[in-house]
Amino acid sequence: MEQSLILQAMGDPAFYPDAPSAVTVRETHISTLFLTDHFVYKVKKPVDFGFLDFTTLSARHFFCQQEVRLNRRLSPGVYLGVLVIYESERGIHLEAKGDVVEYAVKMRRIPEARMMDRLLARGEIDADIIRKIALKLVGFHSRARTDPEISLYGTVARVAKNTEENFRQTEAFIGTTLTPEQFERITAYTRGFLERRRSLFRRRVAEERIRDCHGDIRMEHICIVEPIVIFDCIEFNRRFRYTDVAADLAFLAMDLDFHHRADLSRALVETYIEYSQDWELLKVIRFYKCYRAYVRGKVESFQSAGNALTEEARKKHLSQARKYFALADTYADAQPYLLITSGLTGTGKSRLAEALASELDLALFQSDPIRKEISRVAPEDHRFEAFGKGIYSQETSRKTYQTLLSEAEEALRQGRPVILDATYLKQAQRDAAQRLADRHRAPFFVIEVTCPEEEVKKRLSDRIREVGTISDGRWEIYLSQKEIREPITGISPAQHFIIDTSGKEDYLPRLARKILLDVET
Hints:
single chain, alpha/beta, five-stranded parallel sheet, Rossmann fold
C-alpha cells in the first residue's frame, strides 16, 4: 500500500481516538510527524540511505520498537509505545482489525517553548541548566550498556571507518559547501590524530568508555522541563550509537560552540569530567567535536541537494553546511601551545616535564642535554663547575635558551604543542618564550616548580650518586640560582601554575586537566 494514503489519513483529526482539535504535519528526511493536542505520532519513511534502510514494513516495525526502547532511557514517560495501523473495508485506522499496513511511534507531546535551542536564543540557558544536563549525561553514560562487541566501535579502525566514510561522502561538495583547504586540513588533522593517539584510544576502550550512547545529542533534542528530557536518539544504526561517551558529549558541546556559547560548552565539559572523573576525556573532546561538526556539515550538504526544496530552503541548508564545516576547520586548525618550566635545580622540573610530555603528547626539549651538546660534553659526563663558569657560563646559557626556542619554534610550526624544561629564572628568558608563543598565536603557560629546601638538598645529594643522570645540579648551584632568581610577572594567574613536588599527591592529573581545559574546550 502506498504510504502517502496512510499519511493522508493520519492528517485527519478523526483518525485519532482522542479526537484532537487539529493535526500539524512535519517532515524530516526519514520520518513524518503528526502533532495533535497532546501527542506526537511518528511514521518512518520507506527510504534507504545506506546508513539506514526503512524500505520494508518489517524493518520499520523493528526500528519503531528500537526507538521506543532506546529513547526511554533518557525520556521516561515520553515514548509511549508502537501503534499498529490497519486497513479494512472501512479504511485506514487504529482499530485492531484488517491488514497491518504501517507502524507509528506514539509520544507524549512536550512543550516546544522549553526546547533548549529556543531557550538559548532567548538567553535563558545558564550554568545551572548546563550543570543539570551534564549530571544527567554522567548518570546515563555510567548506566549505558557496554560489552566487548560495543567496545570495538571505539578502536582506531572503527572510528577511522566513520571518518573516512564522511570524507568520501563529502568529496562532491568540495567547492560548494566545503573549501579544498578546509577538506585538506580536516582530513590531515583527523588521520594524524588517530595515528598519533592509538594508545589513547586503546586506553578508552580498556576503561569501558565505549558505550551504547544516544548518538545525536543536540539542543533541538533537549527539552528543559523537570526532569530534563533528551530524546530522538539514533536507533537506526548502532555504528553511530556505539561510541565513546566523549563523542556523545561532544555533539552538544559542539552545538553550543556553533551557537557562539563557548562558555557554556566549556562549563558542560568541565562539569561532566568533574562528576564522571573521566578527565582524560579532555584529550579527545576536540577531535570528537571536529567529527560532530563535520557530520552536521555533511547532513546539511545532503539536504541542500534535495529535489523538492524551495530556493530559500536550499540557500539555508548551504549556509548552515558552510558554517558547520568552518567550525570543524577551527577544531582541526587549533593552534598548539607552549609550556615552560621555571624553578631552581633539584625541585623536580625535569621529572614533571617528562611526565607531562608523555601525558599530553607534547614535544619535549630540555636544557641539560642541549647545554652539554653545545659544550661538546657527553650526556653522561659530569662537569662540577662553579655557577657562571664552564657549561654554566653566560654565553653557554644564552646559546642553550636560544636553542630551546629554535627547537620549540620548529615544533610549533608543525602544529605540535611544546614543553621546554629549563630553570627560566630570568624574566627576560620567560618574555622571549612568550614572544615566541605570541608569534604563533599559541597559548602560553609557565609551570613554576617548587620544593622545600631540605628535600631539594637530599635529592641533589642522591642524584650525584645516580648512574646515567644527565643533570649536574648540586647544592651550590641551587644556592647560586636562588640569588639571581627573578619573580614571575606579566602573566595572568590562569597561565601560571605553581606545583610543589615534595608531597605524595599526584599533581600530574590536576595540572594536565587545567591545561587541557584551557586549550581543548
